[in-house]
Structures are given as structure tokens and as C-alpha cells.
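Minutes, project huddle
Topic: does the predicted pose make sense with acetyl coenzyme *A bound?
PN asked that the exact inputs be recorded in the minutes so nobody has to dig through chat later. Recorded below.
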Amino acid sequence: MIRSVILGSGSALPAKVVTNAELAQRVDTTDEWIVERTGIRQRYIAGEGETTSSLATEAARAALEDAGIDAKSIDLIVLATATPDNTFPATATKVQNALGCNGGIAFDVAAVCSGFLYALTTADSLIRTGTAKRALVIGAETFSRILDWEDRTTCVLFGDGAGAVVLEASEAEGSKRAGLLGSRLHADGAQHDLLYVDGGPSTTQTVGHLRMRGREVFRHAVVNLAEVLGEVLEDSGVSVDEIDWVVPHQANKRILDATAKKLGIASEKVIVTVDQHANTSAASVPLAFDVARRDGRIKSGDLVMFEAMGGGFTWGACLARM
Ligand code: ACO
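Predicted holo structure (C-alpha cells), as shared on screen:
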């Protein structure tokens, strides 16, 4: 049976760091409020010339190098983003061209903060059915460009960045064989108004700004994430104690703590980068994963749970053995 193995990871951040104190100079907020409510201390903001595709390409190159493979062998690129360079074509095709692996499959997935989970599951399905052999799965965003910088309830929460993984079809055998073990995705369109962008090509012909009812999003997030993690564990026949690491979507430290507590997962097993990166939407899970692999926490053989929830609502979880 074919399984998708994670061969390598990479990430990219814009050059410019904006601290809470710097933000407090332009909106009515304080470092203390932001840290206490969210755990965020700083975020990276894209400058001139930095785009979703440029960050995605940099992250993809780092992942290819980490995996030790040539871009030419990539036959699938799935890129999760809610902030594409253009309405069309897909940002994935720009990345493909920049990497020089033209000819294979390349498309974007729009599931906002859950985008990387949706992209990973889609790429895994295409690999397991034999449609692709080696895939780049990327989450990349420039949310700073859809924020209302006058709205202190949202603009303090987000940042820009990209993360990527290389997946490869493997037919290795053995009970502890590496690869993606299980995945569950969900969506509930009834929750549209809790988190959305108030513009788009088919409605206002503008890009629009992010709008959110934060308190209600928070409440749904903890319930939905705890449920979907439980589903993936049950599907995979794995107990919660066997998980070595949880790599969650980095929305808010309080959501991470509350979800871990609800599931009985020790906080030391939860990878946290929200303090450094803020919420980078689809990029946050692969960014956090790459940080934890490169600093040596996530190692070969470890059991890792990815999870995310975002606008739509969409949410999902995926379990992988490294
Ligand atoms: N600085 C200072 N004060 C602020 C700020 C700010 N940046 N933003 C809001 N406030 C004020 C409000 O005006 C309000 O004042 P009031 O009591 O005088 O009316 C007060 O702080 C409390 O506001 P709440 O919105 O009730 O604060 P809450 O404790 O719910 O925290 C937050 C807000 C951080 C947005 C929280 O609800 C949250 O994290 N929600 C989850 C949303 C999220 O992470 N979304 C990301 C996308 S979805 C996802 O990724 C899961």
C-alpha cells in the first residue's frame, strides 16, 4: 500500500519584523493587551517585492534542499492560500515556473487557516492513487494586505510567511513505517459571517478586508479542534498518549492551551510559534513544523498531529509518522 512520506520541510518569512510596541504606535493597543489575550509578541510583514508567490518559492526551495531532491522531480504542487498573487492563475503555477518544474500538476486550495491541512490531504490522496509521485505542499500568505489597519480587534493578530513540505510515495513495509496515517477535514458554511473578507472579484470587485467576531471564533475553535483530533486518533487506532508532537495552527496561545487541555495533551508537546509569527493563516502549520524540525525537536520516527481551523468555517487534522 502506498503511503505519503514527508521527506523535508522549509519556510520563509519577510525581512521586516513588527513588534507589538511598534504596532501600538499606529493603532490604539498595547503590548500587554496583545500578549495577554493572544501570546503574540511580534509578526513579520511583507514589504515591497515580497509576495505570496515569492515567500512560497523560498519556502519550497528550502524544503527541496532539506529533502535533498531536485525540483525537476516534483510532479504536483498544491498551494494553500487566501491571499494569492492574482485572482488567477493559481499562485502554485507561479511557484512551479520559478522552480523550473513545469509540466506537472499545480493548483491552489482555498480553505484559509485550514488550507495546509486541506492541501496535505489532497496531495496525499493524489499520491496514494498513483496520480503523483513527489509533491510540494505549501502554505503561503500575505495577510497584511487584507487587514484593516484601523481595526485593532483584527490587525494585531496576523502576519505573513510561508512553509512547505515535500511528500513522496513510499511502498516501504513495517508497523512503524513513516508516512501520513490518517486525516479528517470538515467545513460548515453556516459560520461564514464569523470570519470572512468583505470583498472579492464576483461581489465588490475589490480585494476587501478581513472581518472577524473573535470571541465566537474562539469558542468554536476549541470544540471543533478537540473533536477532529479525536476522530483522527480513532481512525488511526492511536491513543492520545502516543502522540509525540502537536503542530497546531498558530491563531492564539489561549486556543492552543485550551485545546491541549481538553484532550489531555501535555503543553510541552505542543509546538508554539504564535509568539514570533502571529497568525499566518495557511502558512502557520508548515512554518511551525519546519521550526521544530530544524531545532531538533521533531525527529525521525516521531508521531506528529497537525491541526487547524479557519474561515468558512473549515477545520481538520492529520496524523503523520516522521
Ligand atoms: N488592543 C486593546 N484592546 C482591544 C484590542 C486591541 N488590539 N482589540 C480589542 N480590544 C478591546 C475590545 O474593544 C474590548 O473592549 P471593551 O471591553 O471596552 O468593549 C476588549 O478589548 C475585549 O474584547 P474581546 O473581543 O471581548 O476580547 P477577547 O478576550 O475575546 O480577545 C481575541 C479577542 C484575541 C480576538 C480573541 O477573541 C481570539 O483570539 N479569538 C480567536 C480569533 C482568532 O484567533 N482568529 C484567527 C482566525 S481563526 C483561527 O485561526 C482559529
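Observations noted during the meeting:
- The longest helix spans residues 214-236.
- The mean pLDDT is 97.
No decisions taken; revisit at the next huddle.
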